[in-house]
Amino acid sequence: MEGAVKRGGVVVGDFLRANPAVSAALKKGAFSAAHILLSGVGLVPGAEGADALDAELSLAEGDNVGACMSAAACVPIGGMVAGVGKIVRGGSNMVEATGDLLAAAKAAASGGLPGVAKTVNSNMPHAIERAVERGIFPNAAEARTGLESLSARIGKEGFPEGAILDTAHADRVLVPLGEGGMAVYQVGANGTAKLKTILNAL
To answer: Which of 66, 130, 139, 159 shows a CA-CA span of 20 to 30 A to 11?
Structure first.
């Protein structure tokens, strides 16, 4: 039994490392649950220490708004409004995390491609130039429209059918685009897919 549990833990760990968007969504959900619990306990008179712990947790996450709300909730009686506000905010974050998790799990089930939490088009000018230069699109306007549409679709649905892992770069995915092109996305550990460049399909 112990061996099976250990093997299961390795499999889960490997899955989460290969699918950073799933991992990020689970982490977000766990933190949201912790915030809701601490905020609820903080509403009990004399248990303001839970709000202080919640403020520290928010700071550790880099959530300054949440930290300020938790600090305000530490004030006896008057802080109850902030405490209730934090519970509502935590519930909203849980709903969002659940949606992220479902989307990431769907993407992870798409043949070993990494899950996508969001897309970033910071290299758009370079990608447009390469798409026109390599004959994927006839002009810059059509290239921009095509690339923005592709990134938006990937951000919502994950990588489309026909996308493949880049054998030269483990963190990159090649996505079919336009007339014989491949858009290159670099996927970070947090599930962010960044548009890098455009290649001609072989």
So the answer is: 159
pLDDT digits (tens, 9 = 90+) for 141-173: 999 999 999 999 999 998 898 898 888 888 899
What's residue 108's pLDDT?
60
SS3 per-residue string spanning the chain: CHHHHHHHHHHHHHHHHHCHHHHHHHHHHHHHHHHHHHHHHHCCCCCHHHHHHHHHHHHHHCCHHHHHHHHHHCCCCCCHHHHHHHHHHHHHHHHHHHHHHHHHHHHHCCCCCCCCCEEECCCHHHHHHHHHHCCCCCCHHHHHHHHHHHHHHHHHHCCCCCCEECCCCCCEEEEEECCCEEEEEEECCCCEEEEEEEEECC
Residue range 130-148: average pLDDT?
Answer: 94
Burial class (CB in 10 A: 0-12, 13-18, 19+), 2: exposed
Residue with tokens 């489309």: 160
Q: What is the chain's alpha carbon radius of gyration, rounded to the nearest angstrom? A: 22
The Cα-based distances of 38 to 58, 69, 87, 135 in angstroms read: 11, 12, 9, 57
Of the two residues 68 and 147, the one the predictor is more confident about is 147
